[in-house]
Amino acid sequence: MAYLPSLPRDAKLPDVFRAFPSSAAPLLELHEALMRGPSPFSIGERELIAAYVSALNACGYCTGVHGATATAFGLEEGPLESMIDGLETAPVAANCAPCCAASRS
Hints:
105 residues
């Protein structure tokens, strides 16, 4: 996951927070606003979009966390794999597909 030279290549988010403690609180506040604040997307849809972007970034940790959270918030298991295989034919809500497509560019 880590693209920061001061961290090991296999660093996870908790490692980033330990290395840069002053950044943790503002980042978590932003995350809370984006993922839980008012939105035209449900929480599950936002988590699915985040899982998709994390998969594109090849971050297994984030993909797993966001995917599990999407399921916990009511989305079916399985769409993420279909999205990665081909977004155009994946069983994704119509409002999510354009956001996911934009993240590929």
